[in-house]
């Protein structure tokens, strides 16, 4: 959610006339995140988030906006997009696709507590059981094909040891097929900065712009690799892990096949985000406000996941 497009007040006032939101009071760029331009916008009708989509094509966006509306209407805590005066979620601003959503209360968590991990596990499990009726489909654009593509692009930028680790892990993942694992709509990026809390209450899950249809267990692994770890070492925090997984399983019990593939999926999730961080670090995009995340953090997590302790396995049903 870096700022790549500078929004002028007069242009924003004109844009907002397409919505029944009253007068613009103030607005401010948001620097956290990576992909899109985002602003907090306050009008006489309330507080909102404006997103200008910097890379996504217009054909992709209905999936995300319709999904956000679907989830909010099915009691998954998330921000409902706003319809303009003609009933459309998607608009254009500065010749780019744009959308407004209601700004949720709460703030992101730096050091998750047990109760917060429990609340998040419950909501992710609920999301995975609520979305089979969602009618749209989107493939995962950052799956194995993307891993290989980015690893090749990075080859000349990385030391030999890192290139060796990447190729070794990509080969390892290629030996595992996941056709027998439950699939559905996943968030695919449920990090600490994409969930908002008031104390222990989960107010909302945000930033669904990596959402897609893929293995549900992969979504669990992505989330665990950020919420249930020691930030210094990358090792899993057993207490947070267990309370998260138990809360999730109350909504959707894990299958035998998922328990067999848990270690593989944790490694896949770590690999994907190490590659993403490496790409952003070595091939940055220009932006007024940017937030580049340290690739070494996910390299450390990947190395830690290559030996999964016995007390970090998925719970029995």
TrEMBL record:
GO terms for biological process: threonine biosynthetic process. Pathway: Amino-acid biosynthesis; L-threonine biosynthesis; L-threonine from L-aspartate: step 4/5. GO terms for molecular function: ATP binding; homoserine kinase activity. Residues 27-237 form the Aminoglycoside phosphotransferase domain. Keywords: Amino-acid biosynthesis, ATP-binding, Kinase, Nucleotide-binding, Threonine biosynthesis, Transferase. It catalyses: L-homoserine + ATP = O-phospho-L-homoserine + ADP + H(+). The keyword Transferase applies. InterPro entries: Aminoglycoside_PTrfase, Homoserine_kinase_II, Kinase-like_dom_sf, Pseudomonas-type_ThrB. It comes from the Bacteria. Its EC number is 2.7.1.39. Belongs to the pseudomonas-type ThrB family. HAMAP family: Homoser_kinase_2. This is Homoserine kinase. It comes from Candidatus Venteria ishoeyi. The lineage of its organism: Bacteria, Pseudomonadati, Pseudomonadota, Gammaproteobacteria, Thiotrichales.
